[in-house]
Each structure stands twice: as structure tokens, then as C-alpha cells.
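Dock flavin-adenine dinucleotide; give full complex structure.
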Amino acid sequence: MKEFNTDIVVIGAGPVGLFAVFEAGQLNMKCHVIDTLEFTGGQCQALYPEKPIYDIPAYPEIKAAELITKLEAQIEPHEPVFHLNNQVIRLVKHSDYYEVTTNKEVNIKCKAVIIAAGCGAFGPNRPPLQDIEKYEKTGSVKYLVNKIAEYENKNVVIAGGGDSAVDWALSLAPVAKSLSIIHRRPKFRAAPNSVSQLNELVKLGKIDMVVPYQLHSLKGENGKLKEVILADMDGHEKALEADVLLPFYGLSMELGPIAEWGLNIDKKHIAVNQATMETNIERIFAIGDIAHYEGKLKLILTGFSESAFAVHSAYKYVFPDTPLHFEYSTTKGVAHKEAS
Ligand code: FAD
């Protein structure tokens, strides 16, 4: 077991968890951050890294991945310790501290816990195809798109009928050698404007719409994909040349062990006191998409504000003998960067 001691453990390295590290650092509190994913950024990085976001204050437009890069730069002076690819499996309460344990034998003692776990630990819904793991290992089957440039001159097959499938078909069609979109129904469940654009590109011959078909099997050598085999509703098969398959069948989101900690949870959301972001359990806070109170807006900017409330409330548990003096960042500066 790897043992650590810190002030605050933040569960979830999405945008809101990352900003909590900054706010905590401004009050001289150190953080360890745990995430099940191999990378930081939560939904922004996993689901829509290349999409522009338009409602981050002072950024008329910023790509989701760039927002995460900027947050990482902002929190860097506060030296957070990351435990990525780790899922929190246990929380043990002691008189004035908690012990948080992950599935990778990491054990952290801390004065407060901030849960910024979004919708829970998420992973893709994988299609039940034989040997799919072999193709996942080589990157022939992927569940998220990190860089559009990786798809240049590739034969791309996208499966699914929702927003992700349609949006990525629109984004990848201009760079791919060929792009096919497979759906088991002729009707797509994406935003009407996106569906119109899709139909336009199909008419122009830039996208091959293969409906109503389902994925049947994969063909290739040593995990390198060559063909995706489809079947229609009567079982008639059809082969598509493919270098990469992107199935977008949604995400499974699991709160996992968090659901068993006695927190006030309703439909995968944790009830908090909006003034403090503290849950029904002392020293445990929830912020971002997972936190709920009347009138809650699930937006990144709301989560940023909630993280400020949470760390200001957590301060008393970390420094019980030192009163908190409120100071602007313009007065206080940032760790190594003094205010001018
Ligand atoms: P998340 O981003 O969900 O991050 C939570 C993290 O916690 C994840 O990385 C997860 O792996 C981790 N985690 C969960 N459980 C555990 C566990 N037990 N142990 C360890 N780690 C765990 N919002 C806007 O404000 N503006 C927009 O324009 C906008 N556009 C969007 C477009 C799309 C397509 C989507 C899907 C969302 C959009 N959102 C937008 C919503 C925004 O992304 C979320 O509000 C935001 O990501 C919430 O941040 P978070 O940090 O609370 O949670």
C-alpha cells in the first residue's frame, strides 16, 4: 500500500475538480486528486475535446481540451498530486480525518474530501463483438476522438445514432479517406441541425449512411482492422473497408462505492447545502455535475463557483485554529507568483 497524507482529497479530475485544486491552493491547502480515467479533464477531455465551448467567462470560444490545458497550468503552482487510472473504493472516517483508498493500493489520509465525480466513473458501452479487445489494443477500435488529424486518409466507420456519432461523422468526414455511419434505424436521434448537415454530406457523397444495419463482426490481422462486417435486420451481411471503428453507444456511468457511503443520494446526485457545498456527512463536500440543490445548473461555470464555496467551508477542518481571512487573488497572488 502506498501511503500519503494531505489536506484535501478531490475525487474526480474533471474541470470542476481541477479548479477546486486551485481554490484550495489559494487557501494554502494541498490536494491529491484521484480519477478512474488515465487523463485529466473529465467529460471535456473524454467526450468532446475538440468542441468549442462558448460559455466560459472571458473566453468567447475555447475548445474543451484547451480549457483543461489552461486549468492544468493554473493549478500547477499548487503542486497537486494526481492518482490517475485509480478508482476510489473505500472511505474510512476517523475522529478528525478520513482515509481514502483506491483500487491501485493508494491510501491517503486527509482532513476533508471533495467529490467532483461528475456522473460517476464512466466508461464506454462496448458492442459485444468477438475479439474486440484485440482491436482496441491497437487503436483500431476507439470510443473517443482525441485528435482529428489522426483520422486523415483513414477509412472510418462510425456506429451509433446519437449526437456523438453524428457530430464526429461531421467533423471527421472532411479529413477521412472514407466515412460510413451505421445505425440500426433510418432515423438519427441527434440535434436536428446536425442531422440536416449529415443528410447534406450524404447527398454530396462525402458520407456513406448505412441503415438499417448493425455491427456483426470485425475482420483483420494481428488486431489491425481491415473490414467491419454488418448485418441487416434479416441477417444479410455486408462488408465495409475500415481502418478504424468508432462505436458511439453512449456511456455507462457508475457511482460505484460512493453510493454506499451514507451520502444523501438521489438519482446519482449528491444533495448538498448550497451555501457550503457540504453533504450530509461532515468533512465531505460535493461539487460540479454530481452535486444537487434546488435550482442547480449543470454547467462548468457553476461548478467553478461551487469549488470556491467548498474549499472556503473545508478550511475550518484543515486549519481549525486559524481563522480564515478572505483575500482577493489580486492581493494574495498565486503561490510562487506574487501579486503586483
Ligand atoms: P466530469 O467532467 O464528469 O468529471 C468527473 C470525473 O470524475 C471524471 O473524470 C470521472 O472519471 C471521475 N470519477 C467519477 N467517479 C470516480 C471515482 N469513484 N473514482 C475516481 N474518479 C471518479 N458545460 C458547459 O458549461 N458548457 C458547454 O458548452 C458544455 N458542453 C457540453 C457538451 C457535451 C457534449 C457534454 C457531454 C457536456 C457539456 N457540458 C458543457 C457539461 C460539462 O462538460 C459538465 O458540466 C462538466 O464536465 C462537469 O464537470 P465535473 O468536473 O463536475 O465532472
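Observed: Residues 127-247 form a domain with the FAD/NAD(P)-binding domain fold (CATH 3.50.50.60).
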